Amino acid sequence: MTNLFPKNFEWGVATSSYQIEGAALEDGRTAGIWDAFCEDHSRIADGSDGAVACDHYHRFREDVALMRELGVTSYRMSFSWPRLFPTDSPEPNEQGVRFYRELFAALHDAGISVMATLYHWDLPVWLARRGGFASRETAQVFADFATRLFSLFGDDVDYWVTINEPSVIASLGYITGEHAPGERDMAKAMAAAHHLLLAHGLAVQRFREAGLRSKIGIVLNLVKYVPDSPRPRDRFARFKLDLFYNEWFLSALGEGRYPPLPAGFLRRAKCHPDVHHGDMEIIAQPVDFVGVNYYTRARVRAAHCPSQMNCVLADDPGDEATDMGWTIDPDGLRDVCKRVYRTLRKPLYITENGAAFDDELTGGAVHDEKRTDYLRRHIEAVEQLLLDWVDVRGYYVWSLLDNFEWAHGYTRRFGITHVNFDTGERTPKDSALWYRDFIRDHRRS
Ligand code: GBH
Fold first, then answer.
1. What class of enzyme is it (predicted)?
2. I need a labelling partner for 227 at 20 to 30 A (CA). Which of 70, 83, 98, 381 fits?
């Protein structure tokens, strides 16, 4: 059997702090914006929150053992900022530091490399009170946070990620308000997007100054947008969504400029972010790799909807979708990766890819053929990318565990491991067993 995957290709699984850790107010952690957001239970599908989640804070050894059994080579996780810095004091919370040290030691013993994200949406409330990412000052506070983590964990982390999905934070957190902090304000969204990118760039600067051997990059969520029809207005609607969710970030990081705005409507609406002299150079400084999160393609149609730039998402009749309603399109992964590689010319890691399905635990097993099929087809797309000379160096399944799926609470299961949220019990699904066998057959050491 031909094996195209290069030596040192990372086969991984991914999670994030608020979605799995629980222990929300234990051992000195203070509230983050998601704790605060969930207090209004109407915002979360099942009225839940991440206070307990997968209880990974207490069960991390079991979770590392699960990963070892899967044979993964790498684990992508994120730090909980309010756990490490519960107040604005520069002194870290020792119990928080101890948790991550023990986690990294366990991973190290299991021979699993670490990809650590500095910001996967777990912002301390003390910083949100100062304006959060809508405020420029937060970019500096983030850079100080990053510097402290570089010195605390240094080369225990193999791959540092600055920010997870700036476009999703800006859109769901500041335009639709579906995510924390729940704002609906286009000007704030554009400001937040700029400050997230600036925070990224400042952290990369600090990383270079720290002289670590490990690598640093950013993770972007890319959606493949297609027009709902060949009509010009639908094609222009597609162009606008692609501009704000994809091109805006690629252009800033790759070329050090924001793309020109069609019709100048953002400027007229006074939504263009306030870019200071020198910001774009900071944002565009070279990274070591780029992470791509890919889930779906989306069809776009022009319609009267001023809050969404007169673009709406159309159903994809006849196409298979996951339980999120997201169309399954493995070729989309190829398309977005080729585009990122063409514009940024850096090694790529698929830092998230996976699917939510309504799984049933029967007789100690979960027969999630649809998820296995989803993963297999997307991994085949990665093989195609390698044949197309795209430098893909790793693939991480979202997610190791069923977890707190943001506004969907516990109603959507993305895990390859089933979690019983009453008992905390973990059960590898059939997809996990398939992934284990696939890795065994394809990893080279
Ligand atoms: C990721 O975000 C997050 O990093 C992770 O924490 C989360 O659990 C995971 O995905 C699963 O949701 O245009 O309506 O067809 C993914 C962000 C934003 C990706 C919406 C898909 C397009 C949906 N998603 N996007 S649509």
1. hydrolase
2. 381
